[in-house]
Specification:
Elements lengths: L3 E6 L7 H14 L4 E6 L1 H4 L6 H17 L7 E5 L5 H10 L4 H5 L2 H9 L6 H16 L4 E3 L5 H18 L7 E3 L34 H10 L15 H14 L3 H5 L5 H27 L2 H29 L4
Length: 325
Amino acid sequence: MKKRVFSGIQPTGNLHLGNYLGAIKNWVKNQEKYENIYCVVNTHAITIYQEPNDLRKKTFELFAMLLACGLDTKHSKLFIQSKIDYHAALAWILDCNIPMGEMSRMTQFKDKSQKNPQNVNVGLFNYPALMASDILLYQSDYVPVGEDQKQHLELTRNVAIRFNERYGECFKIPEPMIPDVGARVMSLDNPSVKMSKSNKGEYSTITLFDSKDMIIKKIKKATTDSFNELAFNKEREGLYNLLCIYECLSGKSRSEIENSFRGYGEFKLALAELIFEELEPIQQEYIKLTKEMGYINDIILQNEKYIKDIARDTYDKAKSLVGLI
């Protein structure tokens, strides 16, 4: 039997190149190797206020974009988190088995609290318990995660081990799946921070919706240095980030890339062209899919039945083990 992979992505902001190279491209590349369950985690999104109609719209847009990126319904079950109530129900059971000290050490809570000091709510603090529930409900073998999510996965593993020891076998202990290249695409204008939907700079992020002209403009403005010599050197953060993007998209060796261009200008133009070549068919497929909302709704309903059965089995077992009727 194939190993099961689970992951999710929030429907906030626009998907960007970091999401694509760090997660989605690998989901698509490996989907025939595994049994895949992928989720639009819209319940997670409301830890920060979302305008309700906008959240609904963004949820369906993200679902369509993931299909446009190449997720094949024969190999990957894609669903919407809020349609499966077992996520929140299991999160409560897990909450009661996670020490406050362990939850308090989550660095992402501290980071988001600093960025949004007017909206430090209980849901934001409890976010890792819901994330653990997402993963454990589906008896996941592997979870593709970026470096910034490794701490949350470690908490998931800890609570699963603790629960199994305390109440009896219930949860599979998931392992992280981290790609060697592309796991952490950095901001174009500040390569010391990760490319993110929350980046404020106009030229910091390439979205999956960007036109060719916009991509060229953003790459031309991307931070590098004054050496004008291509080398995969982590200390040269801006250039290293761009080279890693090129490496992910081209499949070429590092030495071949370093010897292919006569300076930053030529390299940046080639990189912009390569990015658009990757994104153009995705953009065209997305436009096609959004004109077929009936087709998308059919996929949602078909996958929901399959997903709900797995989630129900796990939740009912956990509920029984802790003594709930």
